[in-house]
Design a protein that fits this description.
Layout (H helix, E strand, L loop, with lengths): L5 E4 L6 E2 L1 H14 L7 H7 L4 H9 L3 H13 L7 E2 L3 H10 L4 E8 H10 L6 E7 L10 H7 L10 E5 L2 H10 L2 E5 L16 E3 L2 H11 L5
Parallel strand pairs: 1-4, 1-6, 4-5, 6-7, 7-8
Antiparallel strand pairs: 2-3
Helix pairs in contact: 1-4, 3-4, 5-9
């Protein structure tokens, strides 16, 4: 394993804790259609794909209306309830200061993703911020990774780390040839990573930053 040329991060629940907001917006959407909402634990373990990929299966012919209900519920909450993961801001500052290009690839709708990075004052850290709908296909398709690196002069490969908390993040890393890095404290989710294994596991943002700094030569 070598010093990364670039790092691509997932957003939700990798750099920020957004499960309560996603759960509340989904619950409001299910209730609108007279359906039993999912529990927060179920949402944490099962919500992975973008809305445009997931809602047609969940809501069928009601998909368009369900999308409108979800976004209305989400917009009322997402900035006020946005919470950075412990050490995330400091980690981004450290990595950017070390000269490592950083990008985001998320299955959150692009405009909300950019609102949130700006709200936290983190938008200046990222070469590209790629959300759902920005590329032709969403994660785990490889399109967002190529868009995230566009203009950097860096091609997808094992010198590019893809850092995320979920199996879908490990999948896109494998399918683009990037190094899959799992940033996750949960120890009971091995089945989620059985098909696409992480090469590196870290339990905190501080841990990840230190791993990278340890790879940089002292005279660099």
């Amino acid at each position: 394993m070598r010093q990364p040329e670039a790092i691509i991060f997932d957003w939700d629940n990798t750099l920020v804790d957004t499960w309560p907001v996603i759960h509340a917006a989904l619950a409001e959407t299910f209730q609108h259609f007279g359906r039993e909402p999912w529990s927060l634990d179920f949402v944490r373990r099962n919500v992975r794909r973008s809305l445009r990929d997931a809602f047609p299966t969940l809501f069928g012919e009601d998909c368009e209306n369900a999308t409108a209900v979800f976004y209305a519920a989400f917009e009322r909450r997402h900035l006020d309830a946005l919470v950075a993961m412990e050490g995330a801001g400091e980690m981004l500052h450290t990595l950017a200061a070390a000269g490592i290009p950083l990008s985001l690839v998320s299955n959150k709708t692009g405009r909300y993703l950019r609102q949130e990075t700006t709200y936290l004052g983190w938008d200046g850290y990222f070469h590209r911020v790629v959300g759902a709908g920005d590329a032709a296909r969403d994660k785990p398709a490889p399109d967002p990774v190529h868009l995230a690196l566009e203009g950097s002069g860096i091609a997808p490969g094992d010198s590019v780390w893809f850092v995320g908390d979920a199996g879908i993040d490990m999948q896109i890393a494998h399918e683009t040839g990037c190094l899959p890095v799992l940033l996750c404290q949960d120890e009971d989710r091995e089945e989620e990573f059985s098909a696409y294994r992480p090469v590196l596991r870290v339990t905190s943002c501080d841990d990840l930053a230190q791993r990278v700094l340890d790879m940089i030569p002292a005279n660099a």
